[in-house]
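Readers of this paper often ask what the protein records in our data store actually look like. The remainder of this section carries one protein's record, kept here as part of the documentation.

:::
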Amino acid sequence: DLPIFLAEGLEIIGVLKRDDPRDVLVMPKGRTVEEVRTIGTGSLRRQQCAAEIFPWAECKLIRGNIQTRLQKLMNGCFDAIILAKAGLDRMGITEEDGYTFRILSPEEFLPAACQGIIVAEGKPELAEFVGKMTDEETRYLFETEREVLMQLNADCSEPAAAFAELQGEHIRLRVMYGKKSAEGTAPVADRLKLAAELARGMQE
C-alpha cells in the first residue's frame, strides 16, 4: 500500500517483477460459489466488483492481516473472503490448506493499481545499486497504473482500479473509478499520457 505521494527526499528506486495481479474468492473447502451469501472485504473496489458478479451475496467489512482474515473465514464469520493472489502465493497458502479458490480474472474483476508489484522506496543515491533488481517491463506497468491513481488523487480507500498489460511495443490500460470505466492502448513511450487521458475521462 504505497502512498500516492512519497515523502520528501524519497523516490522509487527499484521495481521487482510482478507477481500474480489477480484477486481470489477464498471459501472453505467444499463450499461452492452459489452457496456464498456473505463475502468479507474491506475494499470498496472489491465490493463494487463483487456486486456485479456475485449479486446474490452481501459484502461485509473485514479487517486484519491475511492469517486473521482466513481464521475469521474458517470460524464461520463469512462464507467467503476476497484476497490478493500474490499475497496468498507469497505465504504459500493453497487450496490444499483447506480452501476452495475462485480465481477472478482481470476481465471480470479489475485488480487494484499495482497489485502484485513490490517496489523499493529510498534515497536517490541508492538508485544505482538497488535499481539493478528492477524488471523493466514491470516498471512500465507500475508507472502507468500509479499515474492513474495520482491523476485521480485516489488511494486504496476509494473504488479505483487500474490494470496495464504490455502488448509488444504497446501498452493496454483499463481503469475504473466508481461506476465509470474505460480502456485504451498506446505506445509504451506514451504510457503516462494514456494514463492521464483515461483518468481525466473518469472525472468528467
Notes: The chain has a mean pLDDT of 94. The radius of gyration is 18 Å. The CA atoms of residues 86 and 92 lie 10 Å apart.
